[in-house]
Amino acid sequence: MLVYRSLFGAPSEPWLFTQHRDVPGWHTTYLTHQIDAQGEFVHDWARSRVEASTWGTSRLRRAAFMRGHDPVANRAIARLRPALLHAHFGPDGMLAMRIAERHRLPLVVSFHGYDATRRDDSFTTAGGRLWLAHRAELFDRATYLLANSEFVRGRLIALGTPADKVVLHRIGVDLGRFAPAASTSTSTAPDHVVFVGRLAAVKGIDIAVRAMAVVRRSHPSARLTVVGDGPLRSETEALAVSLGVDVTWRGALPFDQVLDELSTATLVVAPSITATNGQPEALGLSLVEAQACGIAVVASRSGGIPETVVDGVTGLLAEEGSVDETANHITRLLGDSELRSRLGRAGREHVTREFDLATQSRRLSELYDRAVR
């Protein structure tokens, strides 16, 4: 298969590697136009599998690719002779559909959130308007559209996609790598709350900081570690200082270092909200990974999160935007190790049933096989 992503190796997209690493019967090559962060977040196994055609800032090159005329892409496809093209995010699927058509390749497109949930009037850039103009055509031409949650699947159908084309495919988690560790006990990591995610409005990082200010009234030793980066970092750092919240800002981290942070967590918090552009949380992958590690989680009832976290069974959910309810859940879990353990065990079982990477890889292989028949 040829996997297309216009910007490759973003720190927030490690799943782009894990999802395609071990698909039975299929070999992965990536096609991209730009490698983010000088390849710092590109997994080692993928480095030799990248075909890159740099756009720079050239709109002409982008237009050529969209029309199926990019010479690097066409030479790579002619040499590799892939059986299928899989694009991630709807706008990238739109860009790639002429290439797929030119080479008579079935086109599979994965939708991960904003591409199915943002209001149309929020797509105000030239690229956004292009997406809206060609979205219906993509829905018609694609062989399958993959949704990472039932919530996203419902949104795609509401946008006019034929229901039989939209397939639920959850992002799998490697249960061998994300696994319970002894160091998650309260004796080694007391009152340590961890947030993992991009520092953007939809992730609710400001709510996490405000909630920790409330938590510290009863748990003065409580501290927050933030793993991730984004446009709200400086603003949120200033908020933490003004509220007197003890925050360690770790920035975007490679896969292994994220695991290190999770191994010291008492609990993980993800108070996602619906952004002003109408985008809610589609899935909450950091919550899947935390539960795989047997860590209790506090999150919100946003978008697809109730599919990821079963309220009262694998974690505790608060109403979107509620600082007080989020703080109450964190305080409750910090003070109840038995509850944390019970939720953590149930979370691991839930992820094993619904998000196991090996299972999801087999399902992806079966879907590819159907697409090429």
Keywords:
single chain; 373 residues; alpha/beta; Rossmann fold; 2 domains; seven-stranded parallel β-sheet; six-stranded parallel β-sheet; 15 helices; 42% helix; globular
Order of helices and strands: EEHEEEHHEHEHHEHEEHEHEHEHEHEHHH
Query: Mean of residue pLDDT?
Result: 93
| Count of spatially separate domains | 2
Strand content: 15-25%
> Largest sheet at a glance?
7 strands, parallel
- Overall radius of gyration: 21 Å
**What is the strand arrangement across the widest sheet?**
5-3-1-6-7-8-9
Q: Do you know the CATH architecture of the largest domain?
A: 3-Layer(aba) Sandwich
Overall number of strands:
15
Question: What does the model show?
Answer:
With 373 residues, the protein is α/β, with parallel strands linked by helices. It has two domains: 188 residues, 3-Layer(aba) Sandwich (Rossmann fold); 173 residues, Glycogen Phosphorylase B (Rossmann fold), CATH 3.40.50. It is 42% helix and 15% strand. The strands form three sheets. Strands 5-3-1-6-7-8-9 form a seven-stranded parallel sheet. The protein has a six-stranded parallel sheet with strand order 12-11-10-13-14-15, with helices on both faces. The radius of gyration is 21 Å and the shape is globular.
